[in-house]
Amino acid sequence: MPGPGPTVAEPAGRADGPLTAADATRAVETVLGAVLDARLRRAGDVDAVFARDLAGPVTAFVRRGGKRLRTAFAWCGWRAAGGAGDATALLRTGAALELLQACALIHDDVMDGSPLRRGGPAMHVGLVRMHRTARMTGSPESFATSAAVLAGDLALAWADDLLTEAALGSPHGPRLYREWQAMRSEMVAGQYRDIHAQATGASGVDDALTIATLKSALYTVERPLALGASLAAADEWTVASLRSAGRCAGLAFQLRDDLLGAFGDPELTGKPTGDDLRSRKLTYLLAVALRLADAAGDEEAAAVLAPGAATRSDDTVERMRRALERTGARALVESKIEDLAAAGLRHFARTGASPAVREEFASLVERASGVVPGRGKEST
Fold first, then answer.
1. In whole angstroms, what is the distance from residue 110 CA to residue 161 CA?
2. Is the CB of residue 295 less than 8 Å from the CB of residue 251?
3. Which keywords fit this entry according to its UniProt record (predicted)?
């Protein structure tokens, strides 16, 4: 197993209380910075070209940000289970989650052909530009696809190294690692079900929910909550409550992402709008719209939303948006998000977490789902 990583000082809690989710997120940025600097130096020791062309872009991509929600949810799980004191293992786990997220995004953008991520070029797009600037031979796109797969693999390797270091340094390491192992398999299963649905033309609501659960809900909220709880030796009741809370909140997050993918503002989301519609990716939003169109006998909506070949037509995408509105699918999904967010808070309360931790979890659910539980949506 890898040796210990860079030493990271434990962040101090606030003067008026213990470490908060915001404190933990800031501290994880510090951990990530130290880890990325160390990994980049090691990459240079291995090979200068590899460090410059692959490790460098991976570290830059991770530093480019993101919501860091998984880190904050891991903190919520830790605190709900009574976690306090030394947060070193928790912070390393949070940093590992951010590296795993980088892997997932890099690979997802390759599979979907998405040009933008986090307000900048997707990894494979940047690698196409590098190929052309360096005047390499062969196809820039083929090179960039292969290199981006390796970039995602590198982020995954770094994530695994860091999580292993956290597990080795914690008395609860075996529990932590079992959660991590399960999460990685679920991510791959969800991604495969996603591309399988596109290849087979699946359009069912159950298929869409399975994909949303495996690909996003589990690894965005449920598993991070459980990872944090494992570091506090949580009992079975607490873990079960956290899993239920995470499943609901994670689905709310994914359904919001589906809506933003269809109707969001790229300036705010940092990624293109309409790509899921162009590729006719199976989402809960699309599956619900198809079911409602069939039930209402809306042949026009059913035809424009039906599984089929990808489209480049802006007019077709706009017709799909209108169908999502006309069938009532957009409104139904909004309502579903509100219900899921509220259910997530109810399950989290069953853990017996303090009011302060419950309030922070509610704030995170609001950020993830776009709704204030009990008051409806904030924005789409």
1. 24
2. no
3. Magnesium, Metal-binding, Transferase
Q: How many residues does the chain have?
A: 380
The reply to whether the predicted model has a pTM over 0.70 is yes
Q: How many CB atoms lie within 10 A of CB 369?
A: 27
DSSP string, 14-33: PTTSS--HHHHHHHHHHHHH
- For residue 80, give the nearest of 286, 238, 222 by alpha carbon: 238
Mutual angle of helices 236-263 and 69-80, in 10-degree steps:
160
Which pair of tokens denotes residue 80? 């709900």
Q: What is the dihedral of CA 164, 169, 175, 177, to 10 degrees?
A: 0
Q: Which pair of structure tokens corresponds to residue 23?
A: 């404190």
Q: pLDDT of 221-270, one tens digit each?
A: 999 999 999 999 999 999 999 999 999 999 999 999 999 989 987 777 66
The CATH number corresponding to 21-377 among 3.40.50.720, 3.40.50.2300, 3.10.20.600, 1.10.600.10 equals 1.10.600.10
Q: What number of CA atoms fall less than 13 Å from residue 169's CA on the CB side?
A: 21
pLDDT tens digits along 217-229:
999 999 999 999 9
249 membership: H or E segment, kind and range: helix 236-263
